[in-house]
Amino acid sequence: MSANHTTTTTSVKETSTNHKTEPQNTAHNILSVEKTTCCIVGGGPAGAILSLLLARQGIPVMLLEAHKDFNRYFRGDTLHSSVLEMMDELGLTDRLLQIRHTKTYKYITQTADGPVTFADFSRLKGKYPFMMIMEQVRFLEFIVAEAQRYPNFQLVMGANVQQLIEEDGIIRGVRYRGQGGWHEVRSDMTVGADGRFSRTRQLAGLKLIEHETPIDVLWFRLPRKPNEPEEELGEFGHGCLLVLTNRFEYWQIGYIIPKGYYPQIHASGLEALRQSVAETMPMLADRVDHLKEWKQVALLPVKTGRLKRWYRPGLLLIGDAAHIMSPIGGVGINYAIQDAVVAANVLRHPLKAGQVRQRHLASVQRQRELPTRIIQWFQSLSHEQIIVKTLKSGKPFKPPKIMLLPVMRDLPAKLMGYGVWPVHVKR
């Protein structure tokens, strides 16, 4: 245990909270009470990056992750130019690039008129004009290992947050179930970075304004051969859009369908799904038999949304906890990391002084809300005007002429690669 974190074993009184999920007497069985300056709930990209940035500033920070490891079956693995440049500002990109990864320079989709470049990252003027695809577990392990170099950082795995500690209308920390039972963390600041199904958001009573999208995605894996393309592939089929992401030994496949079509697909049987994949992407025809049962296929009902307010006194939400992104463009990780960088830039001095105010939390939202709204609008436009219109027409995808203009290759690449404007780590 770092000297910057204090731990006691005690019995404490139940503190006031408006959002309890456990019986009243749970707080009387607390095994330990720890104190830190910033408690971050959620060990995904946003939580890990924010932890590292605060730890580098000498701020005591505790990162709580509900799972016992960072490995998830269908986590996003894309790191865009903005993230690589922020890593470069921390002096970490050279080491990050030594971890196994692939690079994508263009999003290319087959159309009735031949292949069309939807986004050309190679035309970006930054230092890293490509999208990097790296297993998210490796990225998180790298970031956390870097944070662990600082004695004021602490990671707790298997910490399932169940309660927020609220006193006089201010969030003062969390209670979680972990090793041996209940534990409590008292903190000056709590950050919810626990993803699209955020428990922190629910406990705080912050309501997500959700927007239904017209698509859903089936996720599954098929083997990849060494001589096959390294870049991401896309192909419209009859009633589906197939997107292939290179994961070295296998393809992670997104099978995009109009919303509500899954029961019909399931009723048609697995053989019909295999045949659809083979017809849409003939190079996969020799391995679709690897799909042997429906439990190999995961349904992601696609939704987008965002909070009207990202904070309460003593609490800030970032990443998917504050705004849910569509998987289109693979931008969720990058926008979440940008949230974390802005939060660190704004909060580092107030945290050191012990004087975080609501205006600081509002400043984080103010800087990040417009870029979020714009990318969500862009994703919605892609859903409606390109994907669903093509899928329901039953005809091969024929891109609008405006998509063929060079500027229309640059705009999606910029929005995905950097966002509306770049975010930088303050020195």
Notes on the protein architecture:
By secondary structure, this protein is α+β, with helices and mostly antiparallel strands. It has a domain of 212 residues: FAD/NAD(P)-binding domain. The chain is 31% helix and 30% strand. The protein has ten helices and 20 strands. The strands form three sheets. Strands 1, 2, 3, 9, 10, 11, 12, 18 and 19 form a nine-stranded mixed beta sheet that branches. The protein has an eight-stranded mixed beta sheet with strand order 7-6-14-15-16-13-17-20. A three-stranded antiparallel beta sheet has the order 4-8-5. β15 and β16 form a beta hairpin. It is globular, with a radius of gyration of 22 Å. It starts with 5 loop residues before the first strand and ends in a 10-residue tail after the last helix.
**What does the main sheet amount to?**
9 strands, mixed
The CATH topology of one domain corresponds to: FAD/NAD(P)-binding domain
Helix content: 25-40%
According to DSSP, the number of beta strands is 20
CATH architecture verdict of one domain:
3-Layer(bba) Sandwich
Uncertain segments? 6-25
Name of the CATH homologous superfamily of one domain: FAD/NAD(P)-binding domain
Overall average pLDDT = 88
- Mind telling me the CATH class of one domain? Alpha Beta
Shape: globular
**What is the CA–CA distance across the termini?**
28 Å
Gyration radius, in Å: 22 Å
Q: SSE string, helix = H, strand = E?
A: EEHEEHHEEEEHEEEEHEEEEHHEEEEHHH
Structural class determined from secondary elements = alpha+beta
